[in-house]
Amino acid sequence: MSTDQCQQMRTHLGMHALGRLDPAATVALQAHLDGCLHCRSEMRELRSVAGALSQADPERIDDQLAGPPPALRTTVFTAVDHERRRNRLVRTAKLAAAAAAVLIVALGGVFVVTSQWSTDSQQNIGTQSVAFSEQPADVHATAILENRDWGTSITLDLAGLPQGERYAVWLERPDGSRISAGSFVAGGDKQMSMQLAVGLPMSEAAALGISTPADPTPILRTPIRS
After folding, report:
1. Is the domain defined by 127-223 classed in CATH 2.60.40?
2. Residue ranges per domain, the chain?
3. Nearest CA among 102, 103, 198, 97 for reference residue 150
């Protein structure tokens, strides 16, 4: 029997098994089944299913679906808690790795972020202590500059700038251009000590200064000996 004819007749097998196929189609299907072993085998399987359906009692079907087992809730939440703990460990490891690249100095609740440089390559070939000669009232600031092979390390100690205000620290070249050494948030009367870094050699700097990001006018400025 051709495959096309089998495919056409198979559309009638289910209806025939349920006794719902019209007489004309039943005659044609029966003639096909007489000569097609494969379709007869499929017809027998469908009749066994139809027989089981006829024994089903709709009145005995329970409307309430079975819920999940009680232990499923505990299993799911245990798995979620385990995954959260694993993610926290991963985040902690990433933060530890990031700490190798970023140095955060916290003093008096004020955080200063500066670039960290490899200590293996640092060479201290010059140190200079500077004092800011012109300082606003109640502001006290000193700095130590150290020449490194990568630029200049700056240790800045100060107190008295308005608490919560952000300030920029920079080195100034002889031509007046500035190279940023970082920024900090002032702690008011609290004494702050911070470590900053700038990729400009101390020998190429003419001055050290502090200003606000919005106003380039120096609040503190001191010349650097070349």
Report:
1. yes
2. 3-57, 127-223
3. 198
